[in-house]
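Long-time lurker, first post. I've been practising inverse folding by hand and with some scripts of my own, and I keep getting stuck on stretches where the structure tokens seem ambiguous. Below is the full token string for one chain I'm working on. Before anyone asks, I'm not after the true native sequence, just a reasonable design that respects the backbone. If someone could post their per-position residues I'd love to compare against what I wrote down in my notebook.
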């Protein structure tokens, strides 16, 4: 597994929750939104297991809705637990990203 894949795997739940927080989406739409944000290597095959796990953990809920074109689609919504998890992930990410960026870009550290 590449370094990029490992890093993405660690933060993908937060990215998915963040997209769903903005508006309810169905799986294919979610993968397209992630790809358009710069995560080109996030495919539908990657998304559906994440959605199933998040739903199993009660962080999102799925609801079947009619589609304007084709069969019904399952739209995903954030639950209260999901909103809390997104807040926790965002806070933890902020605490990690700044020092890691400092270390990797400039090598500045006290030691």
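-- Answer (accepted) --
I ran through it position by position. Result:
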């Amino acid at each position: 597994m590449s370094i990029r894949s490992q890093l993405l795997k660690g933060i993908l739940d937060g990215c998915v929750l963040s997209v769903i927080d903005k508006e309810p989406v169905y799986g294919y739409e979610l993968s397209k939104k992630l790809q358009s944000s710069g995560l080109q290597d996030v495919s539908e095959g990657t998304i559906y297991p994440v959605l199933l796990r998040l739903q199993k953990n009660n962080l999102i809920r799925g609801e079947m809705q009619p589609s304007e074109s084709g069969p019904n689609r399952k739209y995903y919504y954030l639950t209260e637990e999901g909103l809390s998890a997104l807040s926790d992930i965002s806070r933890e990410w902020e605490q990690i990203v700044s020092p890691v960026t400092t270390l990797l870009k400039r090598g500045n550290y006290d030691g």
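A couple of notes from the structure itself: The first strand starts at residue 25 and ends at 26. The mean pLDDT is 92. Happy to go over any region you disagree with.
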